Amino acid sequence: MVSSSVFGLLALALAQQACGHGYIWRVTADNTIYPGWDVALDPMLSPPPARIAFGGGIVGPIINISAAEMACNFGGSPRPSAIAEVRAGSNVTFHWSHWLYSHKGPITAWMAPYTGPVSAVNPNDLSFFKIAEDTVDAAGVWANVRMMDQTNRTWTATIPADIKSGTYIIRHEIVALHFSTGTVPGWEFTPVAAQFYMTCFNFRVTGGGDAEPSGVKFPGGYRADEKGMRFNVRNTTGGVVVPGEKYTPLGPAVYTSKYGVDLAEKPVTVVSPTGGGAEADKSYWDAQQAFLETQGKIVSYFDSMGG
Ligand SMILES: *[C@@H]1O[C@H](CO)[C@@H](O)[C@H](O)[C@H]1NC(C)=O
Ligand SMILES: *[C@@H]1O[C@H](CO)[C@@H](O)[C@H](O)[C@H]1NC(C)=O
Ligand SMILES: *[C@@H]1O[C@H](CO)[C@@H](O)[C@H](O)[C@H]1NC(C)=O
Ligand SMILES: *[C@@H]1O[C@H](CO)[C@@H](O)[C@H](O)[C@H]1NC(C)=O
Ligand SMILES: [Cu+2]
């Protein structure tokens, strides 16, 4: 028998997993605005909507760094049936729903080249190189806190200007370290571990160079004994880490392009989330904003409980 208090905790955990953790509802890639994967709306659309994201619904957490899901999260279904077209050297901005302030840790973006149809890609076979990373700043404020506090909760990475043109999977990840050194009263059932939350996207890069940075596979890209697996983000005052404490990033160093490019201005275009015309798009966006607001309230509730 499962006692009702344990059931309550499980229900709480599920609710938190479904909504408390964030998701990427929009991606602006080289001035084109693509829908992300809306965890509330997109699973209900039939046929599955054309998205650049690997679908699947919830965003983590994954705590087993040996698990296949470390590459592109659970499910990965439906596979992307759209692709984001970007020029090498351009910016990609990920638009997050609300993210828990308590879930402090690094934010990264990775790229892995692939060939053939995206439907045939096994994310575990891909070789990812890190293109962007934000951890904790000199004032002790973590990447996710800054991301949340920014207008529209966005995080931007630049496609290295010198990489080869072609198709890539972009893996965007937040690592939450709040339970990496221990749990707090009321959360005893939560494993002591770093938590990984990632989403993968389908991209085509044009106008690139000849760089083919070496990468790492997931699982395998992180080791259990890495220093960055553990960090006491709770040893803080108002989000500020005790001065002198340095965070050691996980995995390989960021790949930096050997040169920059001056890209011609590109007008902003918006990709329809429904393919059904202006009216259908408007109801989609209205419903999306309404759910983002609700999700924000759930996040505030969990943050107020220290989860
Ligand atoms: C982690 O994942 C690996 C690979 O699937 C599996 O063999 C192992 O049992 C998992 N560990 C735990 C604690 O679930
Ligand atoms: C990319 O974003 C950075 C800031 O995040 C900005 O400095 C840079 O000008 C942007 N590049 C392009 C091509 O928009
Ligand atoms: C934030 O989002 C609103 C509504 O989508 C938009 O009008 C505004 O330009 C955005 N601001 C920034 C800084 O992206
Ligand atoms: C914070 O961490 C420092 C260094 O590890 C330690 O000396 C200090 O006691 C900690 N403070 C709290 C309140 O945990
Ligand atoms: Cu959580």
How would you describe what is shown here?
- The chain starts with a helix and ends with a helix.
- 17% of the residues lie in helices and 22% in strands.
- It has a single domain (19-304), classed as Coagulation Factor XIII, Chain A, domain 1.
- A five-stranded mixed sheet has the order 7-4-1-2-12, with no helix packed on it. A five-stranded mixed sheet has the order 3-9-8-5-6, with no helix packed on it. It has a two-stranded antiparallel sheet with strand order 10-11.
- With 307 residues, the chain is α+β, with helices and mostly antiparallel strands.
- It catalyses: [(1->4)-beta-D-glucosyl]n+m + reduced acceptor + O2 = 4-dehydro-beta-D-glucosyl-[(1->4)-beta-D-glucosyl]n-1 + [(1->4)-beta-D-glucosyl]m + acceptor + H2O.
